[in-house]
């Protein structure tokens, strides 16, 4: 049988991984897929640069649209990133009857509903294992491997850059800005790291996980997104003393009333396996009603790890593209006519526990005032440490851990506590999850 | 569309989980699969007991063969365990054109080649996610999620009973026999725990992982199997002091010359994520050439965790059974006409590192004799600790860690060392893997 013809859109890091791994594992891939997978051509903005990176065995074009719709192409692999022109190219490829494989989480988190609807209408597959957690087959695990479960929640370290920074901050006791510079020097953070450190990249991925876990449309605009730029070394240290690690988690949870979708720094018990995921590695915990907790760990980025996911999708499409479209795995795990209309909950309705750090006057009555406010708001305290004030100091750090409470109540309590004259600096609030 | 009709063979723990979860998640399963999945009937040896466990909403029969081949049944779920009559029933179901879902690792490890060939010839699917690591979707991960990789090795904690025992031995400093009794009292070990503690169960699962990782037939008879019954508390303690944990691992590795397939207690660095998998949990590390290391963690046994895997298979079969058989995922990950004839290597050709504990006379020259023998056999030493002999003691423990070496050389070295008059007890040898 003629090999399936693949077009690559983009010639960056991941594309070079795809080219390399496809060539290296060609024989084994054929044995798996039962049919050859052949790279037909690559579209690149800068053909000379592309040729230098990928060699000149393959035709390289600058006409992305012509390649995406070329009649002899079976599968278009979109590895450009960004929204435009990726969106137009993917939609054009679908309209031309091509199957699409993409690693583009931003595109799917924002325009996924449009893209999946177009693919559904045309009877083609859009596969996106590489869009979340790189080489970890987490899309497949949630969509197929755990299909017997009602998923209760997912919590994941799904951005390697921020996990690298947090690991270094903890290991070496350094502050955020210092570690960020090191991470940039080492290539773990980009020159413009905004999307990573502000949590946007993680929120794109959490949005996709949310959709396939709960059968809702992708709704990136409803995600709560908080990055790690405000994290201080002191809080990492206090968390450690209390038996917790701070990780940037993407969390999505079905509460029955609605769905939580949020990215923020999170205290998690140091004994949890995911708390021990260090450096640029990713890991995702999925809690199903039947299976309980499961965890998936691996490299979340990089040339060959991401290529691993892209090629798994190519093999999947090769194996399954002849199935009638009614009997394939649905793009978002649930049949398109059976999506849920459960709303994404606004952040002030989210229920979680909290770590609070207050800089307070070292005088009697302060604790009484604070605990009174918490009690008024119906917030119960799980633990509390007050550092003894140093010699000659008149202020001290007070750390409060709370039980689960509604975020709106916590906002109200923090607002009130902040106005107390004995509270001397902005109150630090970090959410805390037991993950069980 | 008429729901797919399911027959359950067996009415034990897993069957009751399947019945419960199918009922509880019915609506969600329909939304995922696009078609109903209906339990038609159950075959049980003792219908009264089955009725007590599963309720009487479903017809219960004692005629397994009639149910396995009944014309209205689409999928036969075999949950009986054991070889016979499970094998005959599965083959009869296949011959009758039924798809089969099974959790039976012993059956597949021993008769998988026959069963998959029959299924292939008949164009039906045999799905077996539940056969390895319970609720963890490891079969799907290796067979599909990592299809872009050449798998280099897999190492897994794939028997919960023995991991529970080893965790307790380490935590509490107790010996094997004591912990085994506790595990039996707690239900973590069966009344006859032989298959678990002797490593047989883990070897069944490793055999299946080996086949889908490397595209070779299942070859349980070639597996090296060593359990945990001889493990002593002292070795767990020494390993700890050296920065290692001892886990019962199922290991399979492609060396290029052949394939290693072995189950034995193994020292692994305490800093590895898998070293921190405690209690009855399972975890599997898969090393792919493109993705690097990935890890999959979850409950490896139990009613609903195993049911989770069985139902995922039911959803898979529901989604994919209409695809033409040439374009489904092959049972053993590779196309049946493209299997590899790489041999399973005999244990004495396996390459690994070693932990040795010797009870030696506390006198000069002993170490020289021992290290001379190791050097003669081409074995290089990675580390060595000699406990100081206590007051009045004339013997002491000597611990040697070696670099990688061929098992045959180690056998020769141990044989020679054992004959030295200064070596006072049987030499303890535990294999050691860095897992990187």
UniProtKB/TrEMBL annotation, chains A, B:
Q: Which UniProt keywords apply?
A: Amino-acid biosynthesis, Metal-binding, Methionine biosynthesis, NAD, NADP, Oxidoreductase, Threonine biosynthesis
**Taxonomy, superkingdom:** Bacteria
* Stored CDD domains: ACT_HSDH-Hom
**Membership in a protein family:** Belongs to the homoserine dehydrogenase family.
Per its UniProt record, what PANTHER family does this chain match? HOMOSERINE DEHYDROGENASE
Gene Ontology biological process terms in this record:
methionine biosynthetic process; threonine biosynthetic process
NAD found in the keyword field: yes
Give the first-level EC class, as a single word: oxidoreductase
List its EC numbers: 1.1.1.3
Q: Which PROSITE patterns match?
A: ACT, HOMOSER_DHGENASE
- Which GO terms label this protein's molecular function in UniProt? homoserine dehydrogenase activity; metal ion binding; NADP binding
* Protein name per its UniProtKB record: Homoserine dehydrogenase
- Annotated ACT domain ranges read 355-431
Matching Pfam families: ACT (PF01842), Homoserine_dh (PF00742), NAD_binding_3 (PF03447)
Q: Which residues catalyse the reaction?
A: 205 (proton donor)
Q: Which residues bind L-homoserine?
A: 190
Q: Name the pathway it acts in.
A: Amino-acid biosynthesis; L-threonine biosynthesis; L-threonine from L-aspartate: step 3/5; Amino-acid biosynthesis; L-methionine biosynthesis via de novo pathway; L-homoserine from L-aspartate: step 3/3
Signal peptide (from-to) = none
Q: Where does NADPH bind?
A: 105
Names of required cofactors: a metal cation
């Amino acid at each position: 049988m003629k090999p399936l013809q693949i077009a690559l859109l983009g010639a960056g890091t991941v594309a070079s991984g795809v080219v390399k791994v496809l060539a290296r594992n060609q024989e084994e891939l054929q044995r798996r897929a039962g049919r050859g997978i052949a790279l037909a051509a690559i579209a690149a903005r800068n053909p000379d640069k592309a040729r230098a990176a990928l060699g000149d065995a393959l035709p390289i074009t600058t006409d992305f649209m012509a390649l995406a719709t070329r009649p002899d192409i079976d599968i278009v692999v979109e590895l450009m990133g960004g929204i435009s022109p990726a969106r137009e190219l993917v939609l054009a490829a679908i309209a031309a009857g091509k199957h699409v494989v993409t690693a583009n989480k931003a595109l799917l988190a924002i325009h996924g509903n449009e893209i999946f609807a177009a693919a559904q209408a045309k009877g083609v597959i859009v596969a996106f294992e590489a869009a979340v957690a790189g080489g970890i087959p987490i899309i497949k695990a949630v969509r197929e491997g755990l299909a017997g479960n009602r998923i209760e929640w997912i919590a994941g370290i799904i951005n390697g850059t921020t996990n690298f920074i947090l690991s270094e901050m903890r290991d070496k006791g350094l502050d955020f800005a210092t570690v960020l510079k090191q991470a940039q020097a080492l290539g773990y953070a980009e020159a413009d790291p905004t999307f990573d450190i502000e949590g946007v990249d993680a929120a794109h991925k959490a949005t996709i996980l949310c959709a396939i876990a709960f059968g809702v449309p992708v709704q990136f605009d409803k995600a709560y997104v908080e990055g790690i730029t405000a994290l201080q070394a002191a809080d990492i240290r206090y968390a450690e003393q209390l038996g917790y690690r701070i990780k940037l988690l993407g969390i999505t949870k079905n509460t029955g009333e609605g769905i939580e979708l949020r990215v923020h720094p999170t205290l998690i018990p140091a004994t949890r396996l995911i708390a021990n995921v260090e450096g640029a590695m990713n890991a995702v915990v999925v809690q199903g009603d039947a299976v309980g907790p499961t965890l998936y760990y691996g490299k979340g980025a990089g040339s060959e790890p991401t290529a691993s996911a892209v090629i798994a999708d190519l093999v999947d499409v090769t194996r399954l593209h002849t199935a009638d479209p009614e009997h394939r795995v649905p793009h978002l795990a649930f049949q398109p006519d059976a999506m849920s209309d459960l709303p994404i909950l606004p952040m002030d309705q989210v229920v979680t526990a909290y770590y609070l750090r207050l800089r307070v006057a070292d005088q009697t009555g302060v604790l009484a005032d604070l605990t009174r406010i918490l009690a008024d708001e119906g917030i119960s305290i799980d633990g509390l440490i007050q550092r003894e004030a140093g010699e000659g100091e008149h202020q001290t750090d007070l750390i409060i851990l709370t039980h689960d409470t509604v975020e709106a109540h916590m906002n109200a309590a923090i607002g009130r506590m902040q106005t107390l004259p004995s509270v001397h600096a902005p109150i630090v609030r970090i959410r805390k999850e037991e993950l069980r």
